[in-house]
Amino acid sequence: MTTRIQQPGYMVPKFHKIMQKSVLYSSLAVALCAIQLVLGCLSAYGQKPNVIVILADDLGWADLPIYGNTFNEAPNLSRLAERGMTFSNAYAAAPVCSPTRASIMSGQYPARVGVIDFIPGHWRPYEKVIVPTNKTQFLPGEITTMGEMMKAAGYTNGYFGKWHLGFQQGCHPFDQGFDEAYCADGGFYNPKFTPALEPPPQGRFSDIITDMGVDFIQRNSDSPFFLFLGHYDVHVQLNADKPLIEKYLEKMPAAGYPSNAVYAAMIEHLDNSVGRVIETLDSLGLSDNTLIVFYSDNGGLNRRFDRIPLLDKAVEHFYEGDSLQYVASSNAPLSGEKGSLYEGGIRVPLIISWPEKVLCGTESDAMVTSPDLYATLGDLVGAPLPAKQEMDGISLRRTLLTGKEPAGRTLFWHYPVYHHSTPASAVRKGDWKLIEFYEDNSIELYNLKKDIGETENLAGKRKRKATELRSLLHEWRRAVAAELPVANPAFDAARREQWGIHPDRK
C-alpha cells in the first residue's frame, strides 16, 4: 500500500503502531510535487538522470523523524522525503556493514557473494559452533559492480567515504568502476584516506566527504554522474561537535527512547550533509533530474557487542556516571539490534527521490532489500544488467513510478556468526517471518503484521506455516551455496562468550 503523507499539528506516536503514518508534510508541498511530477512526465527531458546514493552507517529504522522519532532532528531528510517515496518495509541484506555493502555493489545476497560478516569478522573460539568465515576479505573481483554497470551506461562515477570492502590491490573503488574515489573506514575527525591526500584533510568525516561530493557534482554537472557517499555516522565510538551535543543535552528526552545527545548530534551531522547535497543540486538546476537514494547499511545499535562504553573519550564526560555511556539508541517497537536477525537488526530507513518521476510525498509498504538497488538503478537509467551475474534483487521501478507493490516477494538473510545474537538465518514471506538458529536448530515464527516487535513465537501453534517457510529457507540456502556452522570440538561453556582474534585478521 502506498499512501500520501499528510501533516497534522503534532507527531503521532508511531512506535506502538507501525501502520499509523507519523511522518507529515504540508498539503501544499504534496500538491506542488504532484504538479512537478506531471510536468516532468510531459517534458521531453532526454538526458539520463544523475544518481546519488547516500549510505548511513548503523542508522536505525526508528531513529528519524520521518519514522516517528520525536527527539532526533533531520529536517533535510524530511525535505528529501517530501520530494520522494519513503519505505516502511525496507531491509538491509545483513545486520552488519560489509555484507550489505557487498549486496548493494553486486545486486546479490551476501551468502551468494561470499561476504557474510563484516570484514574481517567476529570470532568466539570457545563457542558451541565454529562459524563460517568470509570466502574473501574483499569484494570478489569477478563481480560486475554497480560502479562498473553505471560506467558502461555512460556515467562519470565518484565514491567518497566508507567502503569496507577491502583495500587490497585491485579492490579499491578505483578498480570497481569509479573514476574518482577517496575512502576511509573510520575516524570521525581528521580521517586518513586511501589513496592518501596531501595535505591530509582536517575536520569531520561527514564534512570532508560532503565537500568532495559537492565538488564532484559541480565539476560534472554537464553530463550524467553517479555519486556514492558512504558516511561513518552513526557508528561507534560515538562522537560529534560539542556545540551540537550541548544543544541536545538541553532538549527534553522523548518517552521510551534513550535520547542520547551525542547520537542525536551525529544524526544532525548526517542530515546537514544531505542538506548540502540538495542545496548544491538546487543551485545548479539539477534537482528535477537527479535520483537520490538514502539508505542505511543495517539496523540501529543499542549497545556494543562487548558491553564496553560506546562514547569516544573526547565526549565521554558528557555522560559521566550515566547509563547513556553504554546506550546509543533503541529500535523500539522493533526487537533486537545490529548484529541480529530480529527486525531491529535488519529493518532500515529508505528514501528514494526523483522529482521528475518518483511519486512525491508518499510512503510505501513494499518489501525491499538492499540488493534491489542494483537492479533498480540499472532499470531507471537504462543500463543492462550483467548477463552472467545472478541477480537476487528486483527493480522497484513500478513501485516508484506508480505506487504498486511487487506481489508475493520472499526475502532471505544468512548471518551464521556470533554478534548480538547466535548464528542464524531468516526468511520473510508476506506478513510471516521465520528465524532458524544453528546452535540448537530451533526456530521462531512471527506474524509481523500483528506483532512487529516479534514478541510471540508462533512456531508451535502454526506448524504448517513454519514448515513452509523453513523449507523455503533451506532451498534458498542450497541455491546460494550458503555455508553453515559446524560443531566446535573446543567448546568450553565457561569461556563461550570470550571474544578472540579472527583467523583472517592480518
Q: Structural class per helix/strand content?
A: alpha/beta
Q: How far apart lie the N and C ends?
A: 48 Å
Low-confidence runs: 4-45
CATH class of the largest domain: Alpha Beta
**Gyration radius, to the nearest Å?**
22 Å
Tell how many strands the DSSP assignment holds. Answer: 15
Element order, helices and strands?
EHEHEHHEHEEHEHHEHEEHHEEEEHE
Helix content: 25-40%
As a percent range, the share of strand residues is 15-25%
Total number of distinct structural domains = 2
How would you explain this protein's 3D organization?
This protein has 506 residues and is an alpha/beta fold. The chain has helices at residues 27-42, 75-82, 97-106, 110-113, 146-152, 205-219, 242-249, 261-284, 343-346, 372-381, 397-402, 463-479; strands at 2-4, 50-56, 84-91, 129-130, 156-161, 180-183, 225-230, 290-296, 350-353, 362-369, 410-415, 424-429, 432-437, 443-447, 486-487. It has a nine-stranded mixed sheet, with helices on both faces. It has a four-stranded antiparallel sheet with strand order 11-12-13-14, covered by helices on one side. A hairpin with an 8-residue loop joins strand 11 (410-415) and strand 12. Helix 2 packs across helix 8 and helix 6 packs parallel to helix 8 (261-284). The longest helix is centred in the middle third of the chain and has 24 residues, at 261-284. It is globular. 52% of the residues are buried.
